[in-house]
Specification:
Elements lengths: L2 H7 L1 H13 L5 H4 L7 E5 L2 H15 L5 E5 L11 E6 L5 H10 L5 E5 L5 H5 L2 E4 L12 H13 L7 H10 L4 H4 L3 E6 L3 H16 L2 E6 L15 E5 L9 H5 L4 E3 L5 H18 L18
Parallel strand pairs: 1-2, 1-3, 3-4, 4-5, 6-7, 6-8, 8-9
Helix pairs in contact: 2-7, 2-8, 4-7, 4-10, 8-12, 10-12
């Protein structure tokens, strides 16, 4: 079993621990994370940027306050915020560290990381450390979903059924026609659009697959043009997708969507990425040209 497979399988347990941490009245989370009413920016790179987008949508929809998500290299540092939250698994990403340095003394900052004692912990005013969700694989799986589970729990989402849905997503067999898929379009709505972006990234990183991601209502505005035989259009949201089957199957594609929590749905995508990588003779733990952290000279 690869590191990635083992880390994918550990996610329900990691989610339970992240949720418990978010709900601990004596833990570090309540003071470190945004309070209701604060104007907040959330930043990250790669996977963490997509998780930031999901959190921003969730926080605003919950009425907790205006929340913007930026790639760490693109945040407008002159804009006024009550708090900036940085997401970084390694705590060493250059763009995140540079931004935290630029913001020091001007706005309260919090980093969510997997590594205690990392440079990002030293650079931020507060830290939430999910060391139990750290990974050996370059490709992020349990780290991304665990930090989003933590953030959702902090917003007050119940999440009682999430662990069971995750275990079900791990247990069910992968359909052969998905493993043989040649092109994947992932769709989301609201906060699940960030999850769709992350699903597409996982398939590109681990399997080198042709993947795209869009808000679901944008499917008709261009992505439908690449749907054809061998295409999979995957809905990562709860409930129906708002697409008619014929809009996908007519051009020759397959519409997939299990209607469960998007984090549990992402588990299936992660498993599929590993299966496709293995079928293509690729190493899902160490994709070409990627490193655990981007550290620039």
């Amino acid at each position: 079993m690869s590191y990635t497979e083992a880390e994918i399988a550990s996610q329900p347990d990691c989610w339970r621990r992240a949720i418990a941490l978010a709900r601990d009245p004596e833990g570090p989370v309540r003071e470190a994370l945004p309070r209701a009413g604060e104007r907040v920016a959330v930043v990250g790179c790669g996977t963490s940027w997509f998780i930031a987008q999901s959190y921003a949508a969730l926080r605003e929809s919950a009425g907790q306050g205006e929340t913007d998500a930026f790639a760490a290299s693109e945040m407008p540092v002159g804009r006024s915020y009550d708090r900036v939250v940085a997401l970084s698994r390694s705590g060493t990403t250059t763009e995140v560290l540079e931004l935290l340095g630029d913001l020091r003394g001007t706005v309260p900052t919090t980093v969510i990381t997997a590594v205690p004692g990392s440079p990002a912990v030293a650079a931020a005013d507060a830290a939430v450390v999910l060391d139990f969700a750290d990974e050996e694989s370059v490709v992020q799986t349990r780290w991304a979903t665990s930090e989003l589970a933590l953030l959702r729990a902090h917003l007050g989402e119940p999440l009682e059924g999430l662990e069971a849905e995750g275990k079900a997503a791990l247990a069910e067999p992968l359909p052969d026609d998905l493993v043989a898929g040649g092109q994947f379009t992932f769709l989301g709505r609201g906060w699940s659009y960030g999850v769709a972006l992350e699903a597409a990234l996982k398939m590109r990183e681990a399997a080198g697959a042709w993947t795209e991601a869009y808000p679901v209502m944008e499917y008709r505005h261009g992505p439908i043009s690449v749907t054809g035989p061998g295409s999979v259009v995957w809905w990562l949201g709860e409930g129906p997708s708002c697409l008619a089957d014929a809009e996908v199957t007519g051009p020759g594609g397959r519409l997939v969507g299990y209607g469960r929590d998007p984090l549990a749905e992402l588990v299936v995508v992660q498993r599929l990425a590993v299966a496709i990588a293995t079928a293509r003779g690729l190493d899902p733990d160490r994709p070409r040209n990627l490193t655990r952290s981007v550290i620039l000279p």
